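User: Sequence in, structure out. Go.
Assistant: Echoing your sequence, followed by the structure tokens.
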Amino acid sequence: MGAHDLNNAQRRSCNHSLEVETGHHALVAQPHTEAEGPVAAAEAVAAHLSTAQHALGPPGKPLNRRSPFFIGMSAAAGVAVMVGMVGMIIAVRDMLILIGLALFLAMGLEPAVSVLARRQFPRWAAVITVLIAGLAVVGGFLAATIPPLARQATQFITHAPTMVFQLQNHHSILVRLNDHFHLQQRMQQTFSGDAGGLFNGLLGAGQVVFNALTSTLIVVVLTVYFVADLPRIRATLYRLIPHSRRPRAILLGDEIFAKVGGYVLGNLLISLITGVLTFVFLVIVRVPYPLLLSILVAVLDLIPVIGSTIAGVVVCLVALSVSLPVCLITIGFFLIYRLVEDYLLVPKIIGRVVKVPALVTVVAILLGGALLGIVGALVAIPAAAALLLLTREVLFPCLDRT
């Protein structure tokens, strides 16, 4: 064993000496010969560049960026890279949306993690605590609501054609709409079609559910990774900015992170309040399917401006199947709550953090929804807040100096 170890040590020493003397790696393209021509001469120079401080040699001099060749190659490479990036973004658009949504949720959880980390919690313990608390809340909510929600959803699907029939018997406008669009016939075909159509519908529904579950799992896993590794992600992003501009970028970037986090938590809180108040109101006025409708209102209320309006229309139509007075009371409830949400809850919970004018909010939501659908509408307001911050702090001062 001693002789074997000695032979290995001598072999490693020989390889290292060969690499240092020639600049040719001992484990790459051996044997090294002079037939390599100009490369052999460059390897001889490379042997002297390797030092203890720079094992792979010090960085070379920067290229002459004013050279016509460099300018032409840079322009051509820039166009090629841009075309390739656009094609790649289009190809992986759906996955990029999921990644962006996970990062958005991670920034929303970050304020809670940072609060615990400032109170002597290790980062990993703070992340685990927040994730367990979030999973416990969601799991408890699902465990408590899935049985009655499934029962009410089944009843709603079963009674939907009957509700349309009841509505058209009491309201002449709906009679004309049904005669023109054949609403009742379409709903009956949808909910009680033939076996083949039902089978195809079940397959389509199963595929939709599978895709939704897969996307949800991807977002959850990515959110966990983003939350756990957010300090290193933040530091890496700031390292990409030139040293002279890095301090200013840190101030602006952290402010944007804080705005996004405050918006996510505030929006979730407002949606929770909306769902609870809607459930209590529907139970009091005895509108059917209160749990199903209140969850629908809470989910749609996550979409600013238009979400609660769509949910209110759906609830009012269901209330109309009970009676016209109940429908009018329901309309009044949503109008009053909308005023309370817009002028009390949003300014108190979100307004101090985001500070986006109403006109910019509406335009951002419309553009975000047109570009990315529901996800775009969800992230439109914090994205608009970030753009306003950069415009106010960077663009306007630059324009004022010119």
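User: And one key feature?
Assistant: Residues 2-49 form one domain.
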